[in-house]
Design goal:
Number of helices: 4
Largest sheet: 7 strands, mixed
Number of domains: 1
CATH architecture: Alpha-Beta Complex
CATH class: Alpha Beta
Strand content: 25-35%
Radius of gyration: 15 Å
Low-confidence stretches: 148-161
CATH topology: Nucleoside Triphosphate Pyrophosphohydrolase
Structural class: alpha+beta
Mean pLDDT: 86
CATH superfamily: Nucleoside Triphosphate Pyrophosphohydrolase
Shape: globular
Distance between the termini: 28 Å
């Protein structure tokens, strides 16, 4: 990687409405809980990459972006990687963690549908602002904790309106 360049990954905060309120999909890789996400391929738009990654990592293919095209980017982490997240609803409750042909095993070892508070306990400090941002986008009555950083949208960072 050229110094000063950023690698972009894209993902979705996948939520599902239940009789007991909203549930957030978290996937576990090793000891890290996060939302479905992966690298944006050459020539691919971040939102298209995010949808592809959700499908590849969970087999969920019924995402609805009812809250619009809003996105949030994290600051650089893991050798300059930046993650761009969207919020989408699914009606799918059954998640499958399929085999990744490149790894010879699933990318994730576990999934959970969790409440906002449970998600805040499971995710790392890097992911908590994303979770708070998603809750704000969804107009959920949650304790905002630390302020959500003001991060430019994907369009603004790409130089488009």
């Amino acid at each position: 990687m050229v110094p000063g360049t950023q690698r972009l990954s894209a993902g979705v905060v996948v939520v599902r409405r239940t009789d007991d309120g909203w549930r957030f999909l978290l996937l576990r890789a090793f000891n890290h809980w996060d939302f479905p996400k992966g690298m944006v391929e050459a020539g691919e738009e971040p939102r298209a990459a995010a949808v592809r990654e959700v499908r590849e990592e969970s087999l969920i293919d019924d995402l609805s972006f009812g809250w619009g095209q809003a996105s949030m980017r994290t600051g650089p982490y893991s050798r300059g990687k930046v993650a761009c997240y969207y919020v989408a609803e699914t009606w799918t409750s059954d998640v499958t963690l399929p085999m990744n042909p490149e790894l010879g095993r699933p990318e994730h070892s576990e999934f959970r549908w969790v409440t906002f508070d449970e998600a805040m306990e499971l995710v790392s400090p890097r992911v908590r602002p994303v979770l708070r941002w998603a809750a704000q986008v969804m107009n959920l009555p949650v304790d905002p904790g630390e302020p959500v950083p003001r991060v430019p949208t994907a369009q603004a960072l790409d130089g488009t309106p």
